[in-house]
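Quick one, tokens below. Sequence please?
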């Protein structure tokens, strides 16, 4: 057994299959993948990694299994899945995951091949664990898969706590001890026991508050969009293959970007925080549905047209269109008066948070500071946005003035 000092959970005991998996290359790679990707450009102390998060998820999974009275090989399988749940992550965590998915059809939780081969596969089989069944748990399949990946999973509990701790933002602080203790299986569903509506609401509220202040902060989004454009250039020019990119860490990707002439400028800007600025930062009500739901190909066409109108290089125009807001946690199941109910049917707070998410949604157009206003005005014309040039300027200068304190 190993004892590891953790900044969030104090001491973590690692034993069994997890202890043997700990020093595999697949798990150790996660030391070099930042948990929050480009959010570190906003919060300098947010340098925590997927490795320490994986340890935290393992720790909470161990506690949850104890309260759920799951033992033996089933429990060992879940503990392995908890430690391995992020081995499929790309460099900079979720920031370039959509690019990898576009080229390979795989998200970070599609790890069947990764767990079946190499050292990880050998260790799992040595402990009489089927790699495919462990990978199924990582994807959230089956009753016990809900512990690792679901509305009440220990993954979400750890990252909210850990991200709040390392950014210094208090909104992600949750009563994880109570959440873990109150988990129950009822008819194959993972639910919170009677009297825990507020406990479930606290999880939703934490996520809803962390979204605009950390996960979707405008500086983090600008950095992410720049990183995506640069990474696409690497793939388009056969500098790296999608599979090679998937197994890189953060340092590998920055080196690749800096080495290739076509992406060196992006690498320098990201490394030295010389980021693009907002030409547009528009609310959902000001953006047409066909823009919100646009395909990758359509977005690239618009970027090209906007660049022509603004008389700038196409790499100086970046459109950032988030997906429509959704709140997965709203379907969290709680027991009320002996009946299992989805939280959104029991809590009036859910509706308010869903409205808040729509209000917080923003469409961004980014460009170098010297041409940001020109690019913003060209984007308004090209996309037919329901805002005028004066408002573009107001958005740039007014909102910047309020949010620069976070930069």
């Amino acid at each position: 057994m190993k004892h590891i000092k953790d900044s969030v959970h104090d001491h973590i005991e690692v034993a069994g299959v997890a202890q043997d998996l700990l020093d595999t290359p697949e798990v150790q790679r996660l030391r070099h993948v930042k948990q929050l990707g480009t959010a570190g450009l906003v919060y300098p102390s947010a340098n925590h990694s997927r490795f320490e998060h994986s340890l935290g998820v393992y720790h909470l999974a161990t506690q949850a299994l104890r309260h759920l009275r799951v033992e033996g090989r089933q429990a060992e399988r879940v503990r392995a899945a908890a430690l391995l749940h992020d081995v499929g992550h790309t460099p900079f965590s979720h920031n370039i995951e959509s690019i990898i998915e576009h080229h390979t059809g795989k998200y970070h939780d599609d790890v069947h091949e990764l767990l079946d081969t190499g050292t990880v596969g050998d260790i799992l089989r040595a402990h009489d664990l089927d790699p495919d069944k462990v990978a199924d748990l990582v994807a959230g399949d089956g009753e016990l898969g809900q512990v690792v990946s679901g509305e009440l999973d220990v993954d979400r509990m750890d990252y909210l706590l850990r991200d709040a701790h390392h950014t210094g933002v208090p909104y992600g602080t949750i009563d994880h001890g109570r959440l873990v203790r109150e988990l129950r299986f009822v008819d194959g569903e993972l639910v919170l026991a009677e009297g825990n509506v507020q406990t479930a609401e606290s999880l939703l509220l934490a996520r809803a508050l962390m979204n605009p202040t950390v996960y979707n902060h405008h500086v983090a989004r600008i950095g992410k969009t720049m990183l995506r454009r640069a990474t696409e250039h690497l793939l388009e020019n056969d500098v790296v293959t999608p599979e090679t990119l998937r197994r890189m860490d953060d340092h590998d990707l920055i080196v690749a970007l800096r080495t290739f002439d076509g992406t060196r400028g992006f690498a320098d800007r990201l490394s030295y925080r010389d980021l693009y600025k907002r030409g547009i930062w528009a609310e959902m009500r000001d953006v047409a549905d066909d823009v919100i739901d646009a395909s990758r190909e359509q977005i690239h066409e618009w970027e090209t047209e906007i660049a022509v109108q603004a008389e700038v290089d196409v790499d100086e125009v970046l459109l950032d269109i988030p997906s429509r807001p959704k709140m997965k946690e709203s379907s969290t199941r709680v027991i009320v008066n002996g009946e299992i109910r989805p939280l959104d049917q029991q809590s009036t707070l859910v509706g308010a948070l869903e409205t808040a998410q729509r209000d917080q949604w923003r469409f961004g157009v980014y460009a170098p500071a010297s041409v940001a206003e020109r690019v913003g005005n060209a984007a308004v014309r090209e996309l037919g946005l329901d805002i005028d040039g004066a408002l573009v300027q107001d958005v740039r200068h007014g909102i910047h003035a309020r949010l620069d304190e976070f930069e």
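Residues 393-407 have pLDDT under 50 and may be disordered. The longest strand covers residues 277-283.
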